Amino acid sequence: MPIPADAPILTSAAMRVAEAACAAAGTSLSELMERAGAAVADTAWRMAAGAPILILCGPGNNGGDGYVAARLLGERGAAVRVAALAPPATDLAKAARAAWTGAVEAIVDGLPPAPLIVDALFGVGLTRPLADDLARRLRGFADKRILAVDVPSGVDADGQHGWEPPLPADVTLALGALKPAHVLLPTARRCGTVLLAPIGIAADRTMCSLPRQAARSPDAGSHKYNRGMLLVRAGPMAGAAALAAAAGLRAGAGYAVLSGADEAPFAAIIAEDGASYAARLDDKRLGAVVIGPGYPASDALGRDVAAAIAAGKPLVLDAAAIDVALPRLDGTPAILTPHEGEFARAFSDLAGNKIERARAAAERVGAVMIYKGADTIIAAPDGRVVAAWPGSPWLATAGTGDVLAGACGAMLASGGDAFDAAVAAVGWHIDAARRIGPGLVADDLIRD
């Protein structure tokens, strides 16, 4: 299930800053905990549908949220129990525990379960994997419905470590903002359905989830050139470039030229031999150039990339064209679309989680980065990031990256910000794949 659209994503450190800003503005941390606990209680109430609930509380503020939820659920008449790993260790958690008048059981072997388990053990502050004995006890609840508070316990919220939680969630309730773990593999797939509880945090949207896609409809003043003229340079495997050119038209370009190919998939695409490539690059109406699909590393690729850069046209660079272009971009507006292997080859020295590496690469080369995968990350040189989890698993097939490159070309050719173009293209790509679903092949994406 898609995560909330256009939702802020905050690291643990950024979350603490946002909470401090709330406190400075007059909203106390205890009030934020009350709101968080109320959101947990509401979600648990719906999930339980009258069945008993067991809330597992840790010693920190995540546990405090659990105690608040238990109190509010008890006031509603829910059959709720609380089990704790240890006594509360923070002032907020101690106050929340004191307000819960029910019993507190110990999390021990043989603890009776409930149909719904609320995991409020460890939240965003976890700095190491769970102890083996605790992990073993939690795995004993794996056949129950699991609601995780903020992140499943055992997950590194910042996505720096791929720790697998012993108790994957059916539903994860993110408090105030999404966290990197909700949108990065391998942890994202352990979070189940991610919901967002807006508890009053004024979160910066420099990093956010994929926004909802607005239809790109031409208006009365539109014509084929101002909708975007796109040039796709074909290499030895011309079918890949043909996919890119066709995707450009489907994604909204008004005019598409396929240079260096004998034929095109649509009659509306201008297929021409490579001799006219230089002239096409000089066309003032040309909005963007796509190069790389089906074009392996070679001297010819180097010459074609150099000519496109010299022409100063906005570029979409895919596959081997990325490596060729990196030393030469020098401020040319560009979108780069590497998959994992291509990114590792071009930016082998970068460390951190996928978001941090994508952002660092974009800043280094001064171009927009679409770091592809099931957890695609789009990063701009100025630090903006959009996370596109989850995509469509049916996109894991040959040629879909060529289609994405063509869609990027269409969005870029129509003018405007390259980052916005990349975000729109990724959204178009995922939406098209979801409409088609099982059995998708790349050609399907350009047919309807």
From TrEMBL:
InterPro entries recorded: CARKD, Nnr, Ribokinase-like, YjeF_N_dom, YjeF_N_dom_sf
User: What catalytic reaction does the record list?
Assistant: (6S)-NADPHX + ADP = AMP + phosphate + NADPH + H(+); (6R)-NADHX = (6S)-NADHX; (6R)-NADPHX = (6S)-NADPHX; (6S)-NADHX + ADP = AMP + phosphate + NADH + H(+)
Q: Do you know which Pfam families this protein is assigned to?
A: Carb_kinase, YjeF_N
Enzyme class, broadest EC rank: isomerase
Cofactor binding note of this UniProt entry: Binds 1 potassium ion per subunit.
**Family label:** Belongs to the NnrE/AIBP family.
Q: What Enzyme Commission number(s) does the record list for this chain?
A: 5.1.99.6
Q: What is this protein called?
A: NAD(P)H-hydrate epimerase
Q: Which UniProt keywords apply?
A: ATP-binding, Isomerase, Lyase, Metal-binding, Multifunctional enzyme, NAD, NADP, Nucleotide-binding, Potassium
Pinpoint the YjeF N-terminal domain residues.
15-207
Q: Which organism is it from?
A: Sphingopyxis lindanitolerans
Q: Which cofactor does it need?
A: K(+)
Q: Does the keyword Cell membrane apply?
A: no
Q: Which residues bind K(+)?
A: N62, D119, S153
Which GO MF term does the entry hold, naming one? ATP binding
Q: Which GO terms describe its biological process?
A: metabolite repair
- Which ranges carry the YjeF C-terminal domain? 207-448
Report residues binding (6S)-NADPHX.
N61, N62, G63, G64, D65, G123, V124, G125, L126, T127, R128, P129, D150
Q: What does this protein do?
A: Bifunctional enzyme that catalyzes the epimerization of the S- and R-forms of NAD(P)HX and the dehydration of the S-form of NAD(P)HX at the expense of ADP, which is converted to AMP. This allows the repair of both epimers of NAD(P)HX, a damaged form of NAD(P)H that is a result of enzymatic or heat-dependent hydration.
- The reply on keyword NAD is yes
